[in-house]
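Pasting two entries for a bug report.
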Amino acid sequence: MNRDQTFATYEARHFRWEVEHGVATLTLNRPERKNPLTFESYGELRDLFRALVYARDVHAVVITGAGGNFCSGGDVHEIIAPLTAMAMPEVLAFTRMTGDVVKAMRACPQPVVAAVDGVCAGAGAMLALASDIRYGTPGARVAFLFTRVGLAGADMGACTLLPRVVGHGRASELLFSGRSLHGDEALAWGFFNRLCGPEAVLSEAAAFARTLADGPTFGHAMTKKMLHQEWAMGLDEAIEAEAEAQAICMQTRDFRRAYEAFAAKRTPVFEGD
């Protein structure tokens, strides 16, 4: 993708992509198969999220699935079957690519909001987990199925990300068993931030994303960066890193706009600079 390209005009090959008022909606769109991923769609997701570092017209992203399901994971026929015939170097290249999708989602400056209904399994569960905020439905079924197909529960960063969201013991249960986490339980465990009806989950997620897109987007990008980087820091190191981050944010025009709006008793209008 050209760095000067407007992302509103980006033509996705393996999913739907729409941009409106600074919010991009990425819809996994193979509803007849519950929106599984292929080698090609993994690659396009990785490349797109990497390129979003340069996006000036996208300030938040919503990821969802078509047809009442989020994502059933890797396509059994188009991915799993070929993997069984590959040599180790080819398999390792694939597993590194899938992990690169998560790394790209975590590294892009835009907050990512997942709108999850129905099946959310395997790599699909990892796409939801890699998002910054997750809206779900009572009928959502989240499952980290890797052990069910003879693999480790350690896939695409699951053993790092999931304990930080639901706790070590609960993550261990889910990753060892591969069982489904139902919507109400996922909310109680902290996997979902909010539950909505299936007819409203996308609109509610998009509405929240719009509030983020209207906010201080430079500040949001810095918040996301620090949430990610501080995992490996001690408290003293984290406090210093946040002091430096906040000093940078205090040099933005948005910071001045907020002060001027407060002084004038009006709502600030942020522009992301």
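Entry 2 (this is the one that rendered wrong in the viewer):
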Amino acid sequence: MTDAAHNERWIRWLNTVQLVIAGAVIMAPTVWMVLSSFKPSFEVTAYPPTVIFAPTLENYVELTRTTPFLSYALNSLIVTVGSTALGLLFGIPAAFAVSWTRITWPAILTLAARMAPGTLFLLPWYVMFRQVGMIGSYTALILSHAVITLPIVIWVLLPSFDAIPRSVFEAAQVDGCSVTRILWRIAMPLVASGIAVSAILAFVFSWNYFLFALVLSNGDTKTLIAAAFNFIGEGSTQWGALMAAATLIALPPLLLAALVQRWLVSGLTLGAVKG
């Protein structure tokens, strides 16, 4: 074996070790959360922690017995799907317009809104929605969560639209296509992978957002992430049920995150340019 091949083998081995260590560090809290959800309640906060234990479903039973979990899950699904759809509805043409005109300040403005703390919007929204009687409605939650999903959609799709050669659009204009038809018939199919990724990321961020759902919802529209707060009390915290709720809340984003990889490597835009 040559020195170059030997060094390459060691570099590959070291990269593998680094990835394993990084993955273990990142996934350790998630694994601990899932394992704790199957522990008896008194063992969740035991010190030293119990590694070997008899699994039980009592935390999940307690969760479904004390809370309308399915109702909260439906509320989360309605708000998340609605805000994701709203973000796609306005974000796709907005990203295309920014890419088409090369005027970037609207995209920067949405990014600034996304980077600002949620409390900056919360009080004005609360006052506004209260004046029109929309506190506790799905509409208020969907509109507020759109502030999260819209910037994500725009900034994920901008590089995808920019990667399409101008010659493709110019050829369509020569054939008599309007800008709207170019977006619908040409640009969107070419950035389908980007649309899928932006939709999944918007779904994950909206699903996990806590602040707006806590303040703007009521008992009928409370989402899972806000309902989990009920297990934290002043005198005691139901750690077992809280871990079970966190596990179930994290399940949809984790499943969707696994789907992102398939879309990221699809290479639809590259294939179109080659054609």
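Dev reply: Rendering is fixed now. As a check, the viewer should reflect this: The domain at 58-274 is CATH 1.10.3720.10 (MetI-like fold).
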